[in-house]
Amino acid sequence: MAVCVNRNLREYQALKEMSGISEDTLDFYSSTFLDNYNRLPNLDELPHVDSSNHLKGALKIQSIGDIDFADNTAIKENIGVSPEEASVKINSVYKDLEVKVIPTSEEKSMVEIRHRPSEYVDGDEEVDGQFEATKENQRAVLRQSLDRMRNLYGIDIVEASSDELEEAGIFDAIPDAAIARAFVFNGQIYVNSDLADLDAPVHEMLHIFLGAMRYTNPVVYQEIIDRVSRFSSVERIAKLYPNRTTNDILEEVLVTEMGDMLTGKPSELEYLTTKELNLMMYEIQRNLDTMLMGNISVKNLGMEDVVNSTLLELAGKTQSPEFNTSDISVMDLSDMHRRTSNFKQKLMEAGELQEICE
Hints:
This protein is an alpha+beta fold.
Protein backbone atom coordinates (compact mmCIF):
# COMPACT_ATOMS: atom_id res chain seq x y z
CA MET A 1 0.00 0.00 0.00
CA ALA A 2 1.38 3.40 -0.97
CA VAL A 3 2.44 5.78 1.77
CA CYS A 4 0.27 8.88 2.03
CA VAL A 5 2.11 12.14 1.37
CA ASN A 6 1.59 15.12 3.64
CA ARG A 7 1.32 17.95 1.12
CA ASN A 8 1.51 20.51 3.92
CA LEU A 9 5.13 19.69 4.66
CA ARG A 10 7.43 22.63 3.91
CA GLU A 11 9.84 20.26 2.13
CA TYR A 12 7.05 18.97 -0.12
CA GLN A 13 5.87 22.49 -0.92
CA ALA A 14 9.42 23.51 -1.84
CA LEU A 15 9.71 20.54 -4.24
CA LYS A 16 6.35 21.42 -5.78
CA GLU A 17 7.26 25.09 -6.32
CA MET A 18 10.76 24.48 -7.65
CA SER A 19 10.50 21.27 -9.69
CA GLY A 20 8.08 22.29 -12.41
CA ILE A 21 6.54 18.80 -12.51
CA SER A 22 2.90 17.87 -11.95
CA GLU A 23 1.55 17.26 -8.46
CA ASP A 24 0.53 13.71 -9.43
CA THR A 25 4.10 12.88 -10.50
CA LEU A 26 5.54 14.47 -7.37
CA ASP A 27 3.06 12.55 -5.19
CA PHE A 28 4.02 9.24 -6.82
CA TYR A 29 7.76 9.70 -6.33
CA SER A 30 7.34 11.19 -2.85
CA SER A 31 5.24 8.20 -1.79
CA THR A 32 7.77 5.77 -3.28
CA PHE A 33 10.71 7.40 -1.49
CA LEU A 34 8.85 7.58 1.82
CA ASP A 35 7.93 3.90 1.50
CA ASN A 36 11.42 2.71 0.51
CA TYR A 37 13.74 5.16 2.27
CA ASN A 38 11.63 7.04 4.84
CA ARG A 39 12.38 10.41 3.21
CA LEU A 40 11.22 12.70 0.43
CA PRO A 41 13.27 12.76 -2.80
CA ASN A 42 15.75 15.48 -3.63
CA LEU A 43 15.16 17.58 -6.74
CA ASP A 44 17.78 15.63 -8.69
CA GLU A 45 15.99 12.36 -7.88
CA LEU A 46 12.80 13.43 -9.67
CA PRO A 47 12.11 12.98 -13.42
CA HIS A 48 12.27 15.86 -15.87
CA VAL A 49 12.62 18.61 -13.28
CA ASP A 50 13.78 22.09 -14.17
CA SER A 51 14.12 24.52 -11.28
CA SER A 52 15.88 27.16 -13.39
CA ASN A 53 12.72 29.28 -13.84
CA HIS A 54 12.16 29.33 -10.08
CA LEU A 55 15.80 30.31 -9.55
CA LYS A 56 15.68 33.06 -12.18
CA GLY A 57 12.65 34.52 -10.46
CA ALA A 58 14.29 34.37 -7.03
CA LEU A 59 17.44 36.10 -8.29
CA LYS A 60 15.56 38.56 -10.52
CA ILE A 61 17.73 37.50 -13.42
CA GLN A 62 17.85 39.66 -16.52
CA SER A 63 19.53 38.62 -19.75
CA ILE A 64 21.80 40.80 -21.85
CA GLY A 65 22.40 38.86 -25.03
CA ASP A 66 23.21 35.33 -23.92
CA ILE A 67 24.53 36.42 -20.50
CA ASP A 68 22.37 36.30 -17.36
CA PHE A 69 22.75 38.83 -14.56
CA ALA A 70 21.26 38.52 -11.06
CA ASP A 71 20.33 41.31 -8.69
CA ASN A 72 22.69 41.22 -5.69
CA THR A 73 19.96 42.44 -3.35
CA ALA A 74 17.74 39.56 -4.48
CA ILE A 75 20.60 37.12 -3.85
CA LYS A 76 20.98 38.36 -0.28
CA GLU A 77 17.23 38.44 0.41
CA ASN A 78 16.19 35.16 -1.23
CA ILE A 79 19.32 33.02 -0.94
CA GLY A 80 20.45 34.44 2.40
CA VAL A 81 24.14 34.89 1.65
CA SER A 82 26.43 37.30 -0.16
CA PRO A 83 27.01 36.93 -3.93
CA GLU A 84 30.49 35.54 -3.15
CA GLU A 85 28.92 32.70 -1.15
CA ALA A 86 25.87 32.20 -3.33
CA SER A 87 27.13 29.42 -5.63
CA VAL A 88 27.52 26.88 -2.82
CA LYS A 89 24.19 27.75 -1.20
CA ILE A 90 22.26 27.67 -4.48
CA ASN A 91 23.75 24.32 -5.53
CA SER A 92 22.77 22.82 -2.17
CA VAL A 93 19.12 23.81 -2.77
CA TYR A 94 18.60 23.71 -6.55
CA LYS A 95 20.06 20.23 -6.82
CA ASP A 96 19.10 19.59 -10.43
CA LEU A 97 21.29 22.51 -11.52
CA GLU A 98 24.92 23.55 -11.36
CA VAL A 99 25.05 27.29 -10.81
CA LYS A 100 28.03 29.61 -10.78
CA VAL A 101 27.61 33.16 -9.45
CA ILE A 102 30.30 35.67 -10.44
CA PRO A 103 30.04 39.11 -8.77
CA THR A 104 30.65 41.84 -11.35
CA SER A 105 29.60 45.01 -9.47
CA GLU A 106 27.93 46.12 -6.27
CA GLU A 107 24.52 45.74 -7.94
CA LYS A 108 24.86 42.77 -10.30
CA SER A 109 26.38 39.32 -10.57
CA MET A 110 26.77 37.17 -13.65
CA VAL A 111 25.10 33.79 -13.34
CA GLU A 112 25.93 30.63 -15.29
CA ILE A 113 23.30 27.87 -15.10
CA ARG A 114 23.54 24.37 -16.49
CA HIS A 115 21.60 21.20 -15.81
CA ARG A 116 23.23 18.38 -13.90
CA PRO A 117 23.23 14.80 -15.19
CA SER A 118 19.92 13.02 -14.56
CA GLU A 119 19.12 9.33 -14.45
CA TYR A 120 15.96 10.17 -16.40
CA VAL A 121 17.83 11.69 -19.36
CA ASP A 122 19.77 9.60 -21.88
CA GLY A 123 22.86 11.14 -23.43
CA ASP A 124 23.12 11.44 -27.16
CA GLU A 125 26.64 12.67 -27.79
CA GLU A 126 29.53 10.60 -29.00
CA VAL A 127 32.85 10.76 -27.17
CA ASP A 128 35.56 11.54 -29.69
CA GLY A 129 38.25 9.78 -27.71
CA GLN A 130 40.87 12.47 -28.23
CA PHE A 131 41.77 12.81 -24.56
CA GLU A 132 45.39 11.74 -24.24
CA ALA A 133 45.79 10.57 -20.68
CA THR A 134 49.25 11.88 -19.85
CA LYS A 135 50.25 12.44 -16.23
CA GLU A 136 50.23 16.20 -16.79
CA ASN A 137 46.76 16.58 -18.23
CA GLN A 138 45.30 13.97 -15.88
CA ARG A 139 46.51 16.10 -12.99
CA ALA A 140 45.07 19.21 -14.65
CA VAL A 141 41.63 17.60 -15.12
CA LEU A 142 41.59 16.26 -11.57
CA ARG A 143 42.54 19.67 -10.21
CA GLN A 144 39.86 21.43 -12.28
CA SER A 145 37.21 18.97 -11.07
CA LEU A 146 38.23 19.34 -7.43
CA ASP A 147 38.23 23.12 -7.83
CA ARG A 148 34.64 22.95 -9.09
CA MET A 149 33.61 20.73 -6.18
CA ARG A 150 35.22 23.19 -3.76
CA ASN A 151 34.06 26.47 -5.28
CA LEU A 152 30.56 25.47 -6.40
CA TYR A 153 29.60 22.86 -3.80
CA GLY A 154 31.67 23.75 -0.72
CA ILE A 155 33.42 20.37 -0.67
CA ASP A 156 36.78 21.34 0.80
CA ILE A 157 39.20 18.76 -0.57
CA VAL A 158 42.86 19.75 -0.71
CA GLU A 159 44.75 18.58 -3.79
CA ALA A 160 48.52 18.53 -3.43
CA SER A 161 51.53 16.73 -4.86
CA SER A 162 53.75 14.33 -2.93
CA ASP A 163 56.44 17.01 -2.70
CA GLU A 164 53.97 19.54 -1.28
CA LEU A 165 52.65 17.05 1.27
CA GLU A 166 56.17 16.04 2.29
CA GLU A 167 57.30 19.66 2.59
CA ALA A 168 54.29 20.39 4.79
CA GLY A 169 55.41 17.62 7.16
CA ILE A 170 52.32 15.48 6.69
CA PHE A 171 54.29 12.40 5.70
CA ASP A 172 56.35 12.77 8.89
CA ALA A 173 53.17 12.84 10.98
CA ILE A 174 51.46 9.99 9.12
CA PRO A 175 53.95 7.97 7.04
CA ASP A 176 51.20 5.72 5.60
CA ALA A 177 49.82 8.75 3.73
CA ALA A 178 52.83 8.62 1.40
CA ILE A 179 51.25 5.73 -0.52
CA ALA A 180 47.61 6.83 -0.29
CA ARG A 181 45.73 8.31 -3.22
CA ALA A 182 43.38 10.08 -0.80
CA PHE A 183 43.32 10.27 2.99
CA VAL A 184 41.95 12.26 5.90
CA PHE A 185 44.17 14.07 8.44
CA ASN A 186 42.85 16.20 11.28
CA GLY A 187 39.44 16.33 9.65
CA GLN A 188 40.75 17.51 6.26
CA ILE A 189 40.46 15.39 3.11
CA TYR A 190 43.65 15.35 1.03
CA VAL A 191 44.13 14.05 -2.49
CA ASN A 192 47.66 13.24 -3.65
CA SER A 193 47.67 14.38 -7.27
CA ASP A 194 50.78 12.29 -8.02
CA LEU A 195 49.00 9.08 -7.04
CA ALA A 196 45.27 9.77 -7.56
CA ASP A 197 45.36 9.55 -11.34
CA LEU A 198 42.29 9.11 -13.46
CA ASP A 199 43.17 5.46 -14.05
CA ALA A 200 42.46 4.58 -10.41
CA PRO A 201 39.29 2.57 -9.73
CA VAL A 202 36.55 4.59 -8.05
CA HIS A 203 36.49 2.34 -5.00
CA GLU A 204 40.09 3.35 -4.25
CA MET A 205 39.13 7.05 -4.18
CA LEU A 206 36.07 6.92 -1.95
CA HIS A 207 37.43 9.65 0.31
CA ILE A 208 36.51 12.06 -2.47
CA PHE A 209 33.03 10.74 -3.13
CA LEU A 210 31.91 9.49 0.31
CA GLY A 211 34.02 11.62 2.66
CA ALA A 212 32.61 14.70 0.93
CA MET A 213 29.31 13.89 2.61
CA ARG A 214 30.54 15.72 5.72
CA TYR A 215 30.17 18.93 3.69
CA THR A 216 27.05 18.11 1.66
CA ASN A 217 25.00 16.40 4.40
CA PRO A 218 26.83 16.94 7.72
CA VAL A 219 23.96 15.92 10.02
CA VAL A 220 23.44 12.51 8.44
CA TYR A 221 27.21 12.07 8.04
CA GLN A 222 27.74 12.54 11.79
CA GLU A 223 24.89 10.14 12.58
CA ILE A 224 26.56 7.50 10.41
CA ILE A 225 29.99 8.16 11.94
CA ASP A 226 28.43 7.66 15.40
CA ARG A 227 27.09 4.30 14.24
CA VAL A 228 30.46 3.38 12.73
CA SER A 229 32.15 4.01 16.10
CA ARG A 230 30.50 0.80 17.35
CA PHE A 231 31.77 -1.38 14.50
CA SER A 232 34.02 -4.29 15.47
CA SER A 233 36.49 -3.28 12.73
CA VAL A 234 37.39 0.03 14.43
CA GLU A 235 40.17 -1.42 16.59
CA ARG A 236 41.71 -3.33 13.71
CA ILE A 237 41.66 -0.38 11.32
CA ALA A 238 42.90 2.04 14.01
CA LYS A 239 46.15 0.06 14.18
CA LEU A 240 46.69 0.73 10.48
CA TYR A 241 46.38 4.50 10.95
CA PRO A 242 48.53 5.67 13.89
CA ASN A 243 48.73 9.35 14.84
CA ARG A 244 45.17 9.98 13.65
CA THR A 245 42.30 11.58 15.55
CA THR A 246 39.31 9.44 16.48
CA ASN A 247 37.15 11.06 13.80
CA ASP A 248 39.88 10.49 11.19
CA ILE A 249 39.97 6.80 12.09
CA LEU A 250 36.18 6.50 11.97
CA GLU A 251 36.12 8.02 8.50
CA GLU A 252 38.79 5.55 7.39
CA VAL A 253 36.59 2.77 8.81
CA LEU A 254 33.58 4.13 6.92
CA VAL A 255 35.49 4.35 3.64
CA THR A 256 37.01 0.88 4.12
CA GLU A 257 33.66 -0.72 4.93
CA MET A 258 31.96 1.02 2.01
CA GLY A 259 34.74 -0.13 -0.32
CA ASP A 260 34.20 -3.68 0.88
CA MET A 261 30.43 -3.50 0.44
CA LEU A 262 30.63 -2.01 -3.05
CA THR A 263 33.06 -4.69 -4.20
CA GLY A 264 30.96 -7.56 -2.85
CA LYS A 265 32.87 -8.25 0.37
CA PRO A 266 31.27 -8.63 3.83
CA SER A 267 30.73 -5.24 5.47
CA GLU A 268 29.30 -4.04 8.75
CA LEU A 269 27.53 -1.28 6.83
CA GLU A 270 24.87 -3.90 6.11
CA TYR A 271 23.60 -3.24 9.64
CA LEU A 272 22.80 0.40 8.94
CA THR A 273 19.25 1.47 8.15
CA THR A 274 17.97 1.46 4.58
CA LYS A 275 17.70 5.25 4.74
CA GLU A 276 21.34 5.65 5.84
CA LEU A 277 22.62 3.31 3.13
CA ASN A 278 20.49 5.00 0.51
CA LEU A 279 21.75 8.47 1.48
CA MET A 280 25.37 7.33 1.30
CA MET A 281 24.83 5.87 -2.15
CA TYR A 282 23.07 9.08 -3.20
CA GLU A 283 26.05 11.15 -2.06
CA ILE A 284 28.60 8.89 -3.80
CA GLN A 285 26.69 8.99 -7.09
CA ARG A 286 25.96 12.73 -6.86
CA ASN A 287 29.60 13.58 -6.14
CA LEU A 288 30.73 11.39 -9.03
CA ASP A 289 28.29 13.21 -11.30
CA THR A 290 29.62 16.51 -9.95
CA MET A 291 33.14 15.56 -10.94
CA LEU A 292 32.22 14.10 -14.34
CA MET A 293 29.27 16.33 -15.36
CA GLY A 294 28.49 13.89 -18.13
CA ASN A 295 25.52 13.77 -20.47
CA ILE A 296 24.53 10.56 -18.67
CA SER A 297 24.36 10.13 -14.90
CA VAL A 298 26.36 7.39 -13.22
CA LYS A 299 22.97 6.30 -11.82
CA ASN A 300 22.25 4.90 -15.27
CA LEU A 301 25.16 2.50 -14.84
CA GLY A 302 25.26 -0.52 -12.54
CA MET A 303 26.92 0.37 -9.24
CA GLU A 304 29.31 -2.59 -9.50
CA ASP A 305 30.38 -1.28 -12.89
CA VAL A 306 30.82 2.24 -11.48
CA VAL A 307 33.03 1.37 -8.50
CA ASN A 308 35.27 -0.93 -10.53
CA SER A 309 35.67 1.57 -13.37
CA THR A 310 38.30 4.28 -13.49
CA LEU A 311 37.34 7.93 -13.78
CA LEU A 312 38.57 7.90 -17.38
CA GLU A 313 36.35 4.91 -18.16
CA LEU A 314 33.38 6.57 -16.47
CA ALA A 315 34.04 9.75 -18.43
CA GLY A 316 33.53 7.77 -21.64
CA LYS A 317 30.48 5.91 -20.35
CA THR A 318 28.79 9.11 -19.16
CA GLN A 319 29.83 11.14 -22.25
CA SER A 320 31.63 13.68 -20.09
CA PRO A 321 32.75 16.80 -21.99
CA GLU A 322 34.85 17.76 -18.94
CA PHE A 323 37.21 14.87 -19.70
CA ASN A 324 36.84 14.78 -23.46
CA THR A 325 39.32 17.27 -24.83
CA SER A 326 42.79 17.19 -26.30
CA ASP A 327 43.86 20.72 -25.42
CA ILE A 328 43.76 20.84 -21.61
CA SER A 329 46.26 23.44 -20.51
CA VAL A 330 48.64 22.47 -17.76
CA MET A 331 48.98 25.11 -15.03
CA ASP A 332 51.76 27.62 -15.50
CA LEU A 333 54.48 28.39 -12.94
CA SER A 334 52.67 31.39 -11.49
CA ASP A 335 49.58 29.28 -10.86
CA MET A 336 51.72 26.58 -9.26
CA HIS A 337 53.28 29.18 -6.95
CA ARG A 338 49.88 30.61 -6.04
CA ARG A 339 48.36 27.18 -5.34
CA THR A 340 51.34 26.09 -3.26
CA SER A 341 51.21 29.29 -1.24
CA ASN A 342 47.49 28.79 -0.60
CA PHE A 343 48.11 25.20 0.43
CA LYS A 344 50.79 26.23 2.93
CA GLN A 345 48.58 29.03 4.27
CA LYS A 346 45.78 26.54 4.95
CA LEU A 347 48.17 24.33 6.90
CA MET A 348 49.52 27.29 8.88
CA GLU A 349 46.00 28.37 9.80
CA ALA A 350 45.28 24.83 11.00
CA GLY A 351 48.46 24.84 13.10
CA GLU A 352 50.00 22.02 11.07
CA LEU A 353 52.83 24.07 9.55
CA GLN A 354 55.03 26.61 11.27
CA GLU A 355 56.78 29.48 9.53
CA ILE A 356 60.34 29.96 10.74
CA CYS A 357 61.67 33.50 10.31
CA GLU A 358 65.41 34.04 10.50
